[in-house]
Amino acid sequence: MDKQEALTIQQALKKYFGFSNFKGNQEAIIKNVLAGRDSFVLMPTGGGKSLCYQLPSLLMEGTAIVISPLIALMKNQVDSMRAFSGNDGIAHFLNSSLNKTQINQVKKDLIEGTTKLLYVAPESLTKEDNVKFLRNVKIAFYAVDEAHCISEWGHDFRPEYRRIRPIINEIGNAPVIALTATATPKVQLDIQKTLGMLEADVFKSSFRRANLYYEVKPKKNISREMIRYIKDNPGKAGIIYCLSRKKVEELAETLKVNGIKALPYHAGMDAATRTRHQDMFLMEDVEVIVATIAFGMGIDKPDVRFVMHHDIPKSLEGYYQETGRAGRDGGEGKCFAFYSYKDIQKLEKFMQGKPVAEQEIGRQLLNETVAYAETSACRVRMLLNYFGEEMTENCGNCDNCLKPRQEFEGMEYVVTALNAVLAVKEKFKIDHVAKVLAGNKDTMVKSYKHHELDVFGIDDEKDAKFWNMVLRRGLIAKLLDKDIENYGLLFLTEKGKNYINNPYSIMLSEDHEYAGEDDEESSTNGSASRTGAVDSELFDMLKDLRKKNAKKLNLPPFVIFQDPSLEDMASQYPVTMDELQNISGVGTGKANRFGKDFIELIKKYVEDRDIIRPNDMIVKSIVNKSGSKVYIIQSIDRKMPLEDIAAAKNIEMGDLLNEIESIVNSGTKLDISYYIDQILDEDHQEEVIEYFREEAENESITDALQELGEDEYSEEDIRLMRIKFISEFGN
Fold first, then answer.
1. β-bridge pairing 490-492 and 480-482
2. Are 652 and 606 in a shared domain?
3. pTM for the complete prediction?
4. pLDDT value at position 487?
């Protein structure tokens, strides 16, 4: 390309987009498209992918067809292109949101050659009428945006994307540019094969975004953690991702009642509401969007300052793309993920019933996510390694780099792990190799006779989790790699083979343990769980008051407030009825019935000692809108058998009793006598009631069983009777 043409590209950049210089690979990609060659573009979010097809479309003869799955992105980009050129006909989209008149206008502009860019959803592209019509249009090139949707190994697989190549062949051949922000080597190969562009020129930009900070937190007191962070960073825009629509709605509501300008966004909302919420976020009318992954693709907001994941995502591709929406202007971008292994178990449960191949892929992707969450290695190095990019130094900008764990010499462990990969003939995945090293005799290990290998259970002090960590460090150090065709099978690189003969020091550190998480759903009434130091003096005073009131009311103390509630009061210092209702295990009913004396005592205590209350940490909870709880209350009112309620909600009996206890403990009266009468006679019921009323020092089921006799009662009997007792005497 001569100097004059290069100048034209530079001039066009300035004229249409107002930029003086290209970013990264943009210029090389645009020249490749102008030269009529296929291009594969791998560029992280915020790298400027859309310019790579927008600019050449303005300089070439004919119309460029951009295939994108996202209506929001299409509208966004069409508006931008029209604004740049001042001509509404220059860019159009063709999707299900248009009426007949609008479709006719699009077709008119295309035939007249006015339209340089046509955005099409894959479903619209495959419609027979559209295929027929587009045969009469001169196509400059095809741009396949969000190209990872082609691959089952990508994080957003869409079957209709597999049909793009045959449709292109039907409409008429032209060069193809495929673009994605996230693709592992496996996904890249899948995209190129499916689009028939194995000979394409590949342009890979570095995945390194030095301005992004990464941290994984245990899933404890999550609403409180989020509210604390948002209030400590006023005016900063953020996105919070949740896996379910229900959680999106609940969390957005919780943020709102705590004085944060937040709105929900998910695919279950009507299009007009979604668009309004998106626009309010872009226009800074709200600070925070709480969303499912339906939000964010193609949203060009450069100053998102934080991205939080309430739930760990299904894949690292999805996670990396979503975090990539932070700090696109090069400024601050904080990325927090809240992790509980329970979430992984939930995601695995969702996979049941899907085709076996799909389950296998899903499990592999989940394993990568678990590895990322639990690792104590540099998170950015691990992410880059996942996308096939090597980074030799640590990032210095993630929780593991800033708060490193104790390290130890790992040379011998690494050599042992590499030998184990060779011993299983480089035909197995990381989990299997780790089990062999740990000496786990599961079915797979035994069926391949791997329990007979020398490396089997080589160090009886080290478990599979430890060996998983060693093998992952081998991957990061490029001593090991994963087979692309048979995804996940470990093999030694040349570097790894050399390492066995000439080992050198590699420092290791144990992975994080996320044991005993409480993910807030299990807290007593959906209110904030306790946090912060308990004021022991106040706690003792509250216990004395509870005892005094219990005597007055002739009730056991635990019926009034349980110990965890008193502990929460002694760390939060609630001084109004509203604040008391948000204490763990209290709720409106109990606050109104028993709360007055407790509030007065706390108020006086705070004033006498000049205590500064952690006001911002008294998280107001929303009125429990849980459909599940409402259903349980209504069903019990209708005297429905508890087994039928559990079956209708698809939960175990124990989980149903947890829910009923939560409802009753926060002050709601429930009458389950109709059910208890069928399993316990009057004498037994009286005996348990008598025990809780006269003898019980606490609400412990174990103590009750010990006192009343395990041969007479089951744990379930006592739980049911405790519910009846608290409901009748306490509420």
1. antiparallel
2. no
3. 0.65
4. 63
